[in-house]
Amino acid sequence: MKLTDTQRSLLEAAAKHPQQMLTDFPANLKGGALIKVLTALGNAGLVARYANAPEGSMQLVITPEGLTAIGSTPGHTPKQREGTKQATLIELLKRPEGVSLAEMVQATGWQQHYADVLVMPISAGNPTCAAESAVMKSA
Predict the structure, then answer these.
(1) pTM (predicted TM-score)
(2) pLDDT digits (tens, 9 = 90+) for 11-27
């Protein structure tokens, strides 16, 4: 299947997503056009339903065939530069107990206000972020 620019951009964004989900849709892709693009990708086997999607929702993930179609290797994860502050922070965040802001500051040498801004999700319209923000302020 020859991919359109829209199909390729959707698949490339999904390949970069941690769960390889299709989440970034262009603002101009709505209604019937969106359905047509997703149906074509599904019929070609390049996307499939997300197995852990909540009941009644339609979430899609890129398949190994979809990864191959954009020239990516299934199971390939981007290389992380070792010894960087980002690598250090990622390792700390992967721990089962997580990481405190004080630990991030100590490990990276960042100022507390800088580390806080870098890892705090910022989105005024996102209810999850608003709830997290309210919890942080009350702590």
Answers:
(1) 0.54
(2) 998 888 888 888 878 88
